[in-house]
Backbone:
């Protein structure tokens, strides 16, 4: 008996409705007869198997570069000419002093901004503590630009003379006794200025807090970038690296570890610097979520926004580099060179899987981008849009020159400028405790302005100074020597002639009239007591009637 099933007519209709199913052998036969006959069968099979998976990837599919589009032979790289003229954009006298270079970067506009915000914050703090009679803020007097500049000078000087406790700078004990601090600002005034130091206006009561986590320091960061871009244009070679500002307090965007940095946790700063160390732009890591992703690429494009399409070469480490970023910068007429992580999307798998002996190197090229690998003590993966993978001799301090790939040699030459800046500034640290994070960061920006002015001075001045001597030269202008006034200078002369000698009326316990030492005679090293004084002069000095009284009040 035959098996039950659909009729012949139904089977024919079903065959017309269902698409024909191709076997795997038929599929490969059709591909061989097509234009793809030169492709590898394994690659075709893998592309078919993973087609559905790759289409659901959220990242840009164009960055997932297949191995067959990379060439193992050298292909011409894009030739970009540097189209800017580096140097100062304003006129500076050839004999300008270190202080003038410093004030070129820290000008009166910045001082006025800080004094305005500091006085406003002190006023708000005063009214919030009005019930506390003995609060330090109740003795607040408005800060002036001159006093703020002296305050900054004292902060710098604390890096030159180090004390463990802040109040030790004002001690009169014989083991301390630093007159430069007591002459310009009292201890309480310094503490109060530090307490009220502010850079931006706080939101008023009932007003929503800004979403920008850096709103308390944003005016200073914007000032730094605008000031540097308005007075100086950098050379062709730029370096992009991160720096760590030590911060031990609680902070939402505090970083806990950066390899090879002096401080293992704190506030992370992204810095764009010239090859000679001049910091051109600063960006603070705030750990705020980015809906579109690509944080490293956004950092690079933000810091480089004023220097694209000019022919610059930027050197970066593996934290930033990728094939997609290199291609994006190349389209903006900007070279990039640096190390590369093996997990970055778009890296050629043939280079990643290649096994090398010590000293060997291999590279692949695509669309003006070169990705190479070199085996030294360990394997180093690198990327460049400017240099081909040629071997050059790199001189050493001791011994024979060492052979290295050209991109690695150039990367090592220009990549350590931010670390050197951190090292030089670490020799002169300012106060490091009892500060809010934005005050610590603001004072760090002051130090960056001082360091940049030092580099500009040594580049354009006839005299070259060490950073230590440059700091002292600036401090000598900010904190000039206080002239020791004579007793006659301490008493204002009344030109209206209403100062008259008056007999001392006080008596001692024995009933005798008290006498005072004559000020003029004492200056002549003559000890003479007199019974007359000038009651309208400060401290009512004792003066002999006649010549001494006239000489003391003479203009």
Residues:
């Amino acid at each position: 008996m035959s098996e039950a099933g659909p009729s012949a007519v139904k089977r024919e209709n079903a065959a017309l409705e269902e698409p024909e199913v191709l076997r795997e052998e038929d599929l490969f036969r059709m591909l061989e007869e097509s234009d793809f006959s030169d492709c590898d069968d394994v690659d075709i099979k893998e592309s078919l198997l993973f087609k559905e998976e790759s289409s659901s990837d959220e990242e840009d599919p164009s960055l997932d570069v297949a191995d067959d589009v990379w060439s193992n032979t050298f292909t011409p790289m894009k030739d970009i000419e540097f189209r800017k003229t580096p140097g100062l954009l304003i006129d500076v006298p050839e004999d300008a002093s270190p202080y003038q270079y410093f004030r070129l970067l820290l000008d009166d506009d910045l001082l006025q901004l800080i004094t305005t915000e500091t006085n406003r914050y002190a006023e708000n703090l005063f009214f919030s503590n009005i019930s506390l009679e003995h609060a330090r803020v109740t003795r607040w007097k408005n800060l002036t630009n001159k006093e703020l500049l002296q305050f900054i000078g004292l902060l710098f000087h604390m890096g030159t003379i180090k004390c463990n406790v802040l109040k030790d700078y004002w001690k009169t004990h014989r083991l301390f006794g630093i007159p430069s601090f007591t002459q310009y600002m009292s201890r309480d005034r310094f503490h109060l200025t530090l307490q009220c130091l502010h850079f931006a206006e706080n939101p008023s009561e009932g007003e929503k807090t800004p979403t920008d986590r850096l709103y308390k320091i944003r005016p200073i960061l914007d000032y730094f970038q605008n000031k540097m871009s308005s007075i100086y244009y950098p050379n062709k070679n730029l370096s992009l690296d991160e720096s760590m500002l030590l911060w031990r307090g609680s902070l939402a965007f505090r970083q806990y570890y950066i390899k090879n940095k002096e401080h293992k946790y704190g506030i992370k700063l992204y810095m764009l610097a010239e090859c000679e160390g001049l910091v051109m732009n600063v960006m603070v890591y705030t750990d705020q979520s980015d809906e579109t992703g690509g944080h490293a690429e956004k950092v690079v494009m933000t810091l480089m926004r004023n220097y694209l399409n000019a022919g610059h070469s930027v050197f970066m480490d593996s934290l930033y580099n990728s094939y997609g970023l290199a291609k994006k910068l190349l389209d903006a007429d900007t070279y990039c060179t640096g190390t590369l992580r093996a997990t970055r999307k778009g890296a050629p798998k043939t280079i990643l899987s290649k096994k090398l002996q010590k000293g060997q190197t291999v590279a692949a090229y695509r669309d003006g981008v070169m990705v190479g690998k070199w085996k030294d003590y360990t394997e180093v993966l690198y990327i460049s849009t400017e240099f081909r993978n040629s071997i050059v001799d790199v001189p050493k301090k001791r011994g024979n020159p060492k052979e290295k790939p050209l991109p690695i040699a150039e990367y090592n030459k220009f990549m350590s400028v931010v670390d050197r800046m951190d090292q030089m500034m670490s020799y002169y640290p300012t106060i490091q405790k009892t500060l809010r994070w934005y005050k610590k960061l603001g004072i760090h920006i002051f130090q960056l302005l001082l360091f940049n002015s030092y580099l500009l001075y040594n580049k354009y001045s006839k005299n070259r100074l060490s950073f230590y001597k440059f700091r002292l030269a600036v401090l000598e202008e900010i904190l000039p020597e206080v002239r020791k006034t004579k007793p006659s200078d301490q008493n204002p002369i009344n030109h209206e002639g209403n100062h008259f000698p008056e007999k001392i009326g006080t008596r001692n316990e024995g009933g005798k009239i008290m006498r005072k030492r004559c000020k003029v005679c004492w200056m002549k090293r003559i000890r003479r007591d007199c019974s007359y004084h000038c009651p309208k002069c400060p401290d009512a000095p004792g003066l002999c009637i006649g010549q001494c009284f006239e000489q003391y009040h003479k203009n």
